[in-house]
Design goal:
Elements (H helix, E strand, L loop, with lengths): L21 H19 L5 H21 L4 H22 L2 H24 L6 H17 L1 H24 L12 H22 L2
Helix pairs in contact: 1-2, 2-3, 2-7, 3-5, 4-5, 5-6, 5-7, 6-7
Length: 202
């Protein structure tokens, strides 16, 4: 359950973690957007990258606080990201990339769904939807980005769980928010794909 907010909505209100106040989350969104522009560069798909970076901060903050990835953020982001990628394809003529993005979104969504059904305590439906959303973006960048993003998400999430258990903040049965690690893994894969693409001739 989300922490309650005081009636006047002030930052730092009792019951709300300081790192999750509107001011802190807003600053993190700005930092994420600036870093995305700096690392991604001026490409036709930059608006899509910035959108995902900013929404990613909001989703990570929500998941860490409440273990929820709300449809109110996921659904409109998926729609907006799809539109922005279509626009990028119109500008660049990269229609095969758009098709690959759609296939990757479906593939990632189905893959995470299978994992969620096999181990309901490990992944939730929010993680499944987020996985499909990230698959759409990473698929646009390439199959290598999809593979790296998925692997990085699981490795980072696993390392976070081990670290929390090592410091006594979690046990084997403790539920750990997985969304932030999916997002971070996708961010790493996105940077590698964009920055290494020219070197690799992609």
């Amino acid at each position: 359950m989300a922490a309650e907010e005081s009636s006047d909505g002030r930052a730092g209100a009792p019951g709300r973690p300081r790192w999750r106040t509107p001011r802190v989350v807003g600053a993190a969104c700005v930092v994420a957007a600036v870093l995305t522009v700096a690392l991604h560069g001026w490409r036709p798909d930059l608006p899509a990258a910035v959108l995902l970076a900013v929404v990613g901060v909001l989703l990570a903050a929500e998941d860490l606080a409440t273990h929820r990835l709300p449809n109110a953020l996921l659904a409109p982001t998926a729609g907006a990201l799809s539109v922005l990628l279509v626009v990028a394809a119109l500008v660049t003529g990269a229609w095969p990339d758009l098709v690959r993005a759609a296939v990757a979104a479906v593939g990632c969504g189905l893959g995470y769904l299978v994992l969620a059904l096999l181990r309901p305590t490990g992944l939730g439906m929010g993680d499944v939807k987020l996985g499909a959303l990230l698959g759409l973006w990473l698929g646009w960048l390439g199959w290598e980005a999809v593979l790296l993003g998925v692997l990085a998400g699981f490795v980072l999430g696993g390392l976070a769980g081990v670290l929390l258990m090592a410091v006594g903040r979690a046990s084997r049965t403790t539920a750990i928010a997985f969304g932030p690690w999916l997002l971070l893994g996708a961010a790493v894969a996105g940077v590698v794909a964009v920055r290494a693409g020219p070197v690799l001739g992609a």
